[in-house]
Amino acid sequence: MNETQNSENFMHRLQGCATLIDARLDAWLANSERHGFVPERLAGAMRHAVLGGGKRFRPFLLIETARLCGLADEAALNAAAALECIHCYSLAHDDLPAMDDDDIRRGRPTVHKAFDEATAILAGDGLLTLAFEWIAEAGEAAGRPGPYLAAARALARGAGVRGMVRGQARDLGEAPPADVAGLECLHAEKTGALFRASIEIGAAVSGARDGERAALVAFGERFGVAFQHADDLADADHAEHAAAARARLETLVDEAVTSLAPLGARGERLAGLARRLLLGSGP
Q1: Helix%, strand%, coil% for the chain, nearest 5
Q2: Tens of pLDDT along 83-120?
Q3: Which of 109, 110, 93, 71 is nearest to 172 (CA)?
Q4: pTM: predicted TM-score of the whole model, two decimal places
Q5: What is the set of domains in the chain, with CATH numbers?
Q6: What angle (nearest 5°) sits at the alpha carbon of residue 228, between those of residues 262 and 56?
Q7: Are strands 104-105 and 108-109 parallel, antiparallel or unpaired?
Q8: Do 192 and 224 contact (CB within 8 A), yes or no?
Q9: pLDDT tens digits for range 223-234
């Protein structure tokens, strides 16, 4: 298969995953609204935060990981949709005036501009907590609570004070990183931790063996940091560190691909995603 065919295949899979995730999130939110769990204005803000587009790349990684470990896409979908709730909550909060103070996201007003600051905060809180409720319910429905408990733990670590929240606090409270090492530390927490969680959750809900899970987690750690290096390079952010960041990107991609060796040919699709980071346009 040539590079063009690989790219088309990837885009087809990614778009297919996004369609499934959007439908599942829409159905979940509609069910909550139908039963009166969520006041109308808050429900509208949550929908605005979750259903405003996006590649759905984190749930895609989760589903791809679960698939290579033998779990059908549909069986991984609830965990993947819960993960996307966490990502969307983080964006709604990041856009707030007290954080990054952004008015537009994906061509639309951010949640606090479309509604108000208090509602945007509550919408994020609602999505954060619903994500864990839905993961618990997914475990009960599957009759396998143990793997979903491990998934919930991985999600909490990736999204919380050991990961994304700590990275956001570091970003707000410190001077810009002075070198690539400092930048990478920030990337590993603010962005990379949720990517690692995507891979770890996919491994958990699919019942991956310990050796497989360790290989996948190692891949996730390197992929998450590499992803943000690639994103920065594409956007010309931190241009003063560009040459060093490119070198680190290449090293991290090599390490990510190598970490998948225990999986043999089954790991090739994830390896291909890592290699795409070197193309300059991201996955």
Answers
A1: 80, 0, 20
A2: 999 999 999 999 999 999 999 998 999 999 999 999 99
A3: 93
A4: 0.93
A5: 3-279 (1.10.600.10)
A6: 80
A7: antiparallel
A8: yes
A9: 999 998 898 887
Query: In 3D, which of 193, 141, 171, 283 has the Cα closest to residue 237?
Result: 171
Token digits of residue 222: 């390197």
Tokens of 50: 């979750």
Alpha-carbon gap, residue 188 to 168, rounded angstroms: 11
Task: Retrieve residue 256's tokens.
Answer: 């990510």
Q: Which of 128, 104, 101, 108 is closest to 46 using CA atoms?
A: 128
Distance between first and last Cα of the chain: 18
Each residue's pLDDT tens digit, 165-215: 999 998 888 777 778 888 888 889 999 999 999 999 999 999 999 999 999
Tokens linked to 42? 């808050």
Amino acid making up residue 264 = G
192's tokens: 């990379």
DSSP, res 72? -
